[in-house]
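Supplementary Text 2. Reproducibility record for the structural model of the 175-residue chain.

All settings were left at their defaults, and a single model was retained for analysis rather than an ensemble. We include the record here because the model underlies the residue-level annotations in Supplementary Table 4.
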Amino acid sequence: MLFHNGKLKVRKLEKEDNVLLAKWLSDPMVLEFYEGRDNPFDLEKVNEVFYAPEDEEVKCIVEYDGNEIGYIQFYQLDNETKKEYGYFTENVYGTDQFIGEIEYWNKGIGTLIVTSMIKFLIEHKNADRIVMDPQTRNTRAIKCYEKCGFNKIKLLPSRELHEGKYQDCWLIEYH
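Retained model, structure tokens:
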């Protein structure tokens, strides 16, 4: 286990978690906000995308009250990305996450996940800043992140191809 906070546990991704990821990433309600409804994942695609040995991200499964409910990953920003975002000497981490079990949406669990990850990254990885780049249209996620102490830093126009259209994203940071 990487860390826990009450009923929340975050552990590193294991090979047999591929079935969970394939389930979550083939659900149109999840895909609307993560990857796109035109981009569903089957087991083969999950294995290709999430289990590449050269990946820099630390990939994790989120458990709540004993149930596997979602995914979170974190990674140290490389120098090129740091420069693009306007960071130079700081130790900057990024995160991406989703709750794949939709019955756990809108219950404050996302806030618990994000605040717990912030604490972990600051205490165990000495992060100076934590950044994310949610699509501007993902207002529910942005509200969650702002509740956790993230602030919008700058608009990233046409940042992410999602469902056939380039979407604007916000660079948000916790500092």
